[in-house]
Amino acid sequence: MANQSLAYQSKRSREAYIHDIRPVIQKKQVKEKQQAHWKIAVVIAFFIIGGISLILQNVQITEQSNKNAELKAHYAQLYSSNKKKEIEINQKIDLKTVEELAVASYNMNRARKEQIVYIDVKGQDYGVMAKQIQPDEAPEENFNVLTGLMTYLEE
Predict the structure, then answer these.
(1) Is the dihedral of CA 100, 105, 109, 115 positive or negative?
(2) What are the residue ranges of helices labelled H in the chain?
C-alpha cells in the first residue's frame, strides 16, 4: 500500500503541477494566437495597401494617356491650321505685288534688255578677286548692298 500511496501521491503531484502550469500554457497559447492574428492582419494590410497603390498608379497612367491623346489632337489641329495659313501666305505672295513693293519702297526698276548680260560658265564656277581691300584701307562711308547695286546698274 505504501507503494500505491506513493504512486498515488506522485500522480496527484503531477496533476497538481499540470494544473498549476495549465493557466500559464493557456495564456501563452492565447498570446501566440494573438500574435498570429496580428501577423495575418499586417500581411492583409500590406496586400490592401499594395492593391490600392497599383490601382492609383493605373488611374494616373490612364489620366496621362487621356491628356496625351488630347494634346496630340490639339497638336494635329494646330499643325493643319499652320499648314493652311502657310498655303494662304504663299498664294497671296505674287510677283506683281513684290515688284510694286520694290519699286515703291526701294526705288528699284526692272532691268532693260541692254542691262542683262548672259555668261556661259564652263567647268567649275569660281570668281577671282582683282584687289583685296584691307580693313584699314576701306572707305569710311557705309556702303550698303542696294547702293552698290544701284551704282552698278546706272553704269
Answers:
(1) negative
(2) 2-92, 95-106, 145-154
